Structure formats: C-alpha cells, structure tokens
C-alpha cells in the first residue's frame, strides 16, 4: 500500500468565479500534491468585476462541518480565509483549541473589489480568540494595520506590526508586502527570528485571490512537512509565477494561474 497523501483543510468562503476562496484553495492544494478538503463559511455572488452579495452560513453549520472532517479525515494542516461573522470566528476558534495540526489564519477583511468581508466585531474576535491558536497569520499591509493599530507603509512598519500582532499569541506572523511601492517584500517573524522574502513585481490587473492561494500554498507546505520558512519561501516563488502566467480571464481583476509550476 502506498503512503498516505498529506491532507490540507480550508475553512473559508466560496467564490463562484473560482479565483479566490474555497475554490482557489482547493486548486492550490492539488497543485502542491496535497489532498484538499473544505468547510464553507460563506457564499458569495461575485465575478472578476464585482461582488454583489455575501451570505454567511450559521456558526453551528460551520462547526458541524469541521467536526465531521475531524471525525473521519483529519488534516495535516489547515487554513482559514473569509469567515464573515464574529459568531463564525468564535466557532472556528473553539474548534481550533483542539487542533493537533498547524493552523494558518489568512485574516481576509476586504475583497479584491473593495467589499468588506469582516466587520469590526469579527475583527476583534479574530484577534482575541482565533489568533492565539494560529501557527501563522498572513495579513497584507491594510490587514496588518487593522490588526496592529499601527501605520504600515514600509518594511520597518511591517516589522513593528508583526511584533504587535504576535502579541495576540500567534506563533508566527507573515506580513505580505504586495501593497508596497516598488517590488514586494514579505516579512516573516517566527520564533523570535526575522526572514525576508523578495520578488519582482508583476504589473497586471489579474491578481484576484492572490492572498487566498498564497496562504493555501503555505498550508500545503506545512501539510507536506516543510518547516515554516521553507513553506513560505516556496509558496512565495509559486505565487509570483502564478501571477506572472495568469490566464487573463474576465473583464476585471482576473484569477492567477493555479497551474503554475512549483519552485524547487
């Protein structure tokens, strides 16, 4: 009998365009050779040009989905994406207390189209109740500013924000620099050590779901047994290639290329 394939779980919202959320996470898991499973927290009506509606599921239904998987096919690593409501954040946090695998928290607050996906009460619940159980939290610059209460516009600000967010109890913080002027720099604070990951900026409007896929790539790496800096390094290389080779779909901010080759 062959060895069991690693398993990764995503707890997030659904994107019918396939570029972000649950759909993007599952595609990313598959590309990394990891079996993917999913708990849906919200349903959206969106495409590459707009978001028309967001409907959160009940917290009880999200909890039951998680427990059904843990009872039968427990993952080797998990991630969260858009959770929508404070009730769902608290429900996931309650289950995360018992997780025996690493949890990556992607604190999705606003869609690519600028639609809020996490209200203030949910943001506070995320910081107080979910981040203490996170092996890694992956905010972009606006999310890092919201979580830390600091201005974040350069690498020094990213470092200060990472330290402040780590005070929540999260074991590691990756502040993503896609919103920086010039080439992006990602800053990882883990175990009291600093790591920086640089890339060449790709000038394209097709970046829908980048954060979802990046955090999913890291989650897949953790499921495969890579240490955190290696999972981030290889995830960063892959996401850059996925943006560079995007398929150019849609009339708005289109998806990245989830078929992009993995970096060695």
CATH architecture: 3-Layer(aba) Sandwich
Strand fraction band?
Answer: 15-25%
Number of helices: 8
Adjacency order of strands in the biggest sheet: 3-2-1-4-5-6
* Global mean pLDDT: 94
> What is the helical fraction, as a range of percent?
25-40%
CATH topology: UDP-N-acetylmuramoyl-L-alanine:D-glutamate ligase
Largest sheet: 6 strands, mixed
Query: In total, how many beta strands?
Result: 9
From the N-terminal CA to the C-terminal CA, the straight-line distance is 27 Å
- SSE arrangement, N to C: EHEEHEHEHEHHEEEHH
* Integer tally of domains: 1
CATH superfamily: Ribokinase
Observed structural traits:
single chain; 264 residues; alpha/beta; UDP-N-acetylmuramoyl-L-alanine:D-glutamate ligase; 6-stranded mixed β-sheet; 8 helices; 9 strands
How would you describe this protein?
The chain has a 6-stranded mixed beta sheet with strand order 3-2-1-4-5-6. Helix content is 37%, strand content 19%. The protein is of the alpha/beta class. β4, α3 and β5 (103-105) form a beta-alpha-beta unit. It has a single domain (7-244), classed as Ribokinase (UDP-N-acetylmuramoyl-L-alanine:D-glutamate ligase), CATH 3.40.1190.20. It is globular, with a radius of gyration of 17 Å.
